[in-house]
Inverse folding.
């Protein structure tokens, strides 16, 4: 079975721009969660989508949004980028949700200049 | 409030046993998860405990005591490849969704020859 894939793997953007990241979950997994990882804040939960609905969310501003398609693929969007948004963005898929067993993709390294 | 505490670093020699403790404070507890992350890699699921007791998976075991809000990850017969960061995670209740997955700051395990 193929693992979780994320595209692109690396991205450089400037402040004020917006960015869209993509995640393809493991086949059969309906739950996709997104995380931000930085050296200072560690692993932070952004949100989870299950069957095209946002089911759980963390404490991030409205500039961070996402969606899930009928094939379970998910996208995450960040608008009006700030320097502090530079991070590794990880997505993870699971059958039941983020509070149980989940499988992470390799991540997208976003650098905001 | 909601919090997770785990030691920042543990050093041990090959073949030794290491125990990583995790104490948590959260409402709406679902279970305690453990993840391993090597430098430059994505987190990998290790274990999930929903009920009290010890779960064993090969050289790794995880324990949970819900009454003490405490768990630990036990790494036996340490190998050099076990050098990594280890995170505990629990569900934390939020005001506007079913919840979020909250991670501890991570424990860096350093295995020496």
């Amino acid at each position: 079975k193929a693992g979780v894939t994320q595209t692109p793997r690396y991205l450089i953007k400037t402040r004020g721009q917006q960015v869209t990241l993509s995640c393809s979950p493991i086949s059969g997994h309906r739950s996709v969660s997104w995380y931000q990882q930085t050296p200072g804040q560690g692993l932070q939960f952004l949100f989870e989508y299950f069957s095209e609905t946002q089911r759980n969310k963390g404490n991030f501003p409205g500039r961070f949004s996402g969606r899930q398609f009928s094939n379970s693929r998910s996208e995450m969007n960040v608008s009006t980028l700030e320097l502090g948004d530079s991070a590794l963005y990880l997505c993870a898929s699971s059958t039941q949700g983020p509070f149980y067993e989940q499988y992470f993709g390799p991540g997208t390294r976003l650098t905001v200049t | 409030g909601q919090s997770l505490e785990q030691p920042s670093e543990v050093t041990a020699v090959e073949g030794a046993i290491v125990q990583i403790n995790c104490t948590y404070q959260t409402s709406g507890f679902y279970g305690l998860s453990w993840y391993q992350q090597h430098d430059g890699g994505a987190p990998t699921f290790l274990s999930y405990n929903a009920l009290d007791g010890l779960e064993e998976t090969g050289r790794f075991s995880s324990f949970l005591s819900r009454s003490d809000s405490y768990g630990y990850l036990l790494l036996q017969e340490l190998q050099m490849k076990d050098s990594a960061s280890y995170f505990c995670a629990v569900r934390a209740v939020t005001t506007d969704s079913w919840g979020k997955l909250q991670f501890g700051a991570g424990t860096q395990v350093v295995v020496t020859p």
About this structure: Chain A has a mean pLDDT of 95.
